[in-house]
Amino acid sequence: MKLQFLLTLFSISSLFSVAQEGGYKFSEIIKVPTTSVKDQASTGTCWCFATTSFFESELLRKGKEETDLSEMFIVRQKYLNQLENNFLRQGKGNIGQGSLSHTYTNAFKQVGIVPEEVYKGISYNSQKHNHTEMVSFMESIAKTAIANGVRSDEYYKLINNLFDTYLGELPEKFTYNGKEYTPKSYAASLELNMDDYVELTSFTHKPYYQEMEIVVPDNWEHERSFNVPLNELISVMDNALNNGYSICWDGDVSERGFSFRNGVAINPDLQKSEDLSQTDRARFEKLNTEDKWGEILKFKAPVGEINVTPEIRQQGYETFVTTDDHLMHIVGIAKDQNDNKYYITKNSWGAGSNSFGGYLNMSESYVKAKTIYIMLHKDALPKDLKQKIGLK
After folding, report:
1. Which candidate, 47, 91, 273, 285, has a CA 20 to 30 Å from the CA of 41?
2. 65-116, pLDDT tens digit by residue?
3. What is the tens place of the pLDDT at every residue in 252-304?
4. How does 43-57 read in b/e, with b if 16+ C-beta sit within 10 Å?
5. Closest CA relative to residue 113, chosen from 124, 104, 101
6. CA dist., res. 23 & res. 8, Å (int)
7. Looking at the DSSP assignment, which residues form a beta bridge with residue 332?
């Protein structure tokens, strides 16, 4: 594990010096400690992998030893909670694989947590996670219960046996580092208070400095986030990272400027050409929009990006251009060769999923436009903002 961690750090350092030969060149400004990149594989559980990574960094921030927590222990409880919600809503709930960060904190408070080595969550013939078949069976059982209008004893047996078969039986007790724990007592030993974490967003259709429900399908628990002005949301992120706190990020990764392969996510302004050489500029201005994108997607060098306003951000949300696609873990700040700011972002597609150890850099413009919400420790918020939203 130590060797893998060092190799991952080597890959990460490469990302911050040069993203690609002759392309984006990054310098690391700040980076908080984090654990190795994991792989969600063939599952829609990015929400859990990102939030687990976030809490692993929280443990490092608090001076705890490096810890690998079980994602699937939380995912299993999430499925159970969704099934309950969906049945009581007479089949109109969400039992998809996606979710949001508060799903993790809610499940953690319910059932605790265990280390990865205690509950790997793979009890089927696969080296990697794959929930396709399991979820198909789960949906069939759920539909039958709704059609019958009752959850029989057999229903509960079937559901629990399904999860035991695919994910493994839940440990009532386990020994870790020479000590015996239950999931609840192990969670207590980590000294993570789930009530210390808050979600922030920024939209203009609701009042600022108040809580609002973000209306996206994955918010099936109807949890609320604090709504703050866009400039303050960015200030919170910068303040957090500069003071050793990382950020759990939810947003849209479906845009053409999001290139995990190239290790960057950008929000180009197709009307700008001042970042190009004089020769390239003349040629660029003659191109149509598609041709401009073609040039940009070669990622030869940084280009001008959109100055995102609250109005631009809101339009993206209300026209469903900005969607709730993916959760990742923001762990630092970098700058490119033109001094533009980016957020160092840890993904959950495996360390070998790109040439940068499973990381990418998201530009400030991209983050402004495409963030759905962030989660972080409440102490990472500036004091004046905590007062405005009523946090102690």
Report:
1. 91
2. 999 999 999 999 999 999 999 999 999 999 999 999 999 999 999 999 999 9
3. 999 999 999 999 999 999 876 444 444 444 444 554 566 778 888 889 999 99
4. bbbbbbbbbbbbbbb
5. 104
6. 22
7. 31, 344
